[in-house]
Design a protein that fits this description.
ten-stranded antiparallel barrel; single chain; 3 helices; mainly beta; elongated; 13 strands; 285 residues
């Protein structure tokens, strides 16, 4: 029994020693592009500030950074009374670091990500009042993701590493929306994203790639990303609205990677048709 006790404790220590590492995040979710479209000519141009809503924390008297900020520039246009197109540009700048006290991994990792998306969609009024709307968009995105890693190894030797890759994203995004008096809309969106990592360049060693879960990025990853999206405006300012949304990213693939799991966005959006008072086909309400 004593021998078994020592083996279990030794295994536990080894596990914790191996598990104490700074995650290298390969994916960060974007804000959902859920336009309020009810008829041909409706449009959306939006600018959202986004964050992963995490912050610095102090461990053993040492500050550990963990932040991810950026913006989402979005657009959409209703080509007909049922079909629309959309586009978006996503930019993220992130930082996180490890445990400087134990020296198991004292890395500081700085990220830069960008992605450009294009999609087409279908939307339909679920009644005669245009207050309940279903929409679904599908599209593809292309961009780059990379980070620089600097710190000290377990022998107190300083090092620098980098990791860069192209990212391709294929997504399907159904959403159900409720409108109220043209000034408020609440939507439940459920996006499914398949992420492909390509043309990887890095100077990590094979052992480091294995330790940091970066050695199997040749396989695509599926994420389920539910979100709540709310927009509101004012009668005296037609075409101008504000947006607030919260979303999650949940890995559905069996092959694990480190990723950001939360996104919070807030911003302003314009419907140019209403803002410029362009005439559109008569609305039912």
């Amino acid at each position: 029994m004593k021998r078994l006790f020592y083996i279990l404790n030794f295994s536990f220590l080894i596990f914790n020693w191996c598990a104490c590492y700074t995650p290298r995040y390969v994916y960060s979710p974007a804000a959902h592009n859920v336009p309020v479209l009810v008829q041909e000519g409706d449009s959306k141009i939006a600018f959202n500030l986004s964050t992963n809503f995490t912050g610095d924390k102090t461990v053993n008297g040492q500050k550990q950074k963990n932040k991810g900020n950026g913006f989402d520039l979005q657009g959409a246009y209703a080509v007909t009374n049922n079909f629309a197109v959309q586009a978006a540009f996503i930019r993220r700048t992130e930082t996180n670091n490890g445990d400087f006290v134990s020296n198991l991994d004292s890395s500081i990792i700085n990220y830069k990500r960008n992605l450009t998306e294009f999609g087409i969609g279908y939307y339909k009024d679920l009644g005669n009042s245009r207050q309940a709307i279903f929409q679904v968009f599908a599209g593809v995105g292309f961009g780059k993701s990379g980070f620089k890693d600097r710190g000290k190894d377990r022998n107190n030797v300083f090092y620098n590493r980098f990791h860069q890759m192209n990212v391709t994203k294929v997504y399907v995004q159904p959403a159900f929306m409720i409108r109220s008096k043209k000034n408020f809309a609440a939507a439940l969106s459920s996006r499914f994203s398949v992420i492909y990592f390509q043309k990887i360049k890095t100077d990590y060693t094979a052992i480091e790639l294995d330790n940091y879960k970066l050695d199997s990025l040749g396989y695509p990853r599926l994420f389920w990303e539910p979100a709540m999206v709310n927009t509101f405006g004012f009668k005296k300012l037609p075409g101008l609205q504000f947006e607030f949304q919260m979303g999650l990213a949940l890995l559905q693939s069996r092959r694990f990677v480190d990723y950001r799991s939360f996104n919070l966005s807030t911003g302003i959006l314009f419907d140019l048709t209403k803002l410029l008072k362009v005439k559109t086909p008569a609305s039912k309400n």
